[in-house]
Specification:
2 domains; four-stranded mixed β-sheet; alpha+beta; 171 residues; 56% helix; Glutaredoxin; elongated
């Protein structure tokens, strides 16, 4: 084999190895960016003190607070509307902060938790007792006034005594 042929083969091998290394490092960077985006969503997307799933479950048991479990995705139109309206309402923010552990789950990133809760549509809002047992869920968008009424219904433990309709008739 001629020296030129050996040199060409060596250059091709180096180029292939460089290409593989470059793509692997690019994939690692994309994974880091995705993790950082999810962390930012949980921490600072709104004034709600979002917890991740495992942290929130443990915290609710230790603090004895109800859980507000919010399933969402970036592409979801009504999830965006919730964030821009209901989750910006000062009364809602204050009530959530004082009385609930708020957990945010991006269903595109945390598919395992979404499957565990059998989430079919977005947004999906779950309400849990401090011992993590289910109270009820609400599919879709809800405005701030209605959401605050639901939070008060849950916090007052009226779900043990009456339906939400009956509760609304008494306030």
């Amino acid at each position: 084999m001629k020296k030129e042929n050996i040199l060409v083969v060596a250059i091709v091998c180096i180029a292939v190895i460089a290409f593989i290394i470059y793509n692997n490092s690019k994939l690692d960077m994309q994974m880091d960016v995705t993790a950082k985006k999810e962390s930012a969503k949980i921490k600072g997307d709104s004034a709600i003190d979002w917890k991740d799933y495992k942290q929130g479950i443990v915290l609710s048991e230790s603090e004895g607070k109800h859980i507000f479990l919010y399933f969402h995705a970036d592409w979801c139109t009504y999830c965006k509307k919730l964030k821009q309206t209901t989750f910006k309402d000062k009364k809602v923010l204050s009530y959530l902060k004082e009385n609930f552990i708020s957990i945010s789950v991006d269903t595109d990133i945390n598919k395992e938790v979404a499957n565990q809760w059998k989430v079919k549509g977005l947004p999906t809002l779950w309400f849990l007792k401090p011992d993590n047992s289910k109270i009820s869920h609400l599919p879709g968008y809800v405005d701030a006034k209605q959401f605050l009424s639901i939070l008060k219904y849950i916090q007052s433990k009226s779900y043990d005594k009456k339906t939400f309709q009956e509760y609304m008739e008494t306030i």
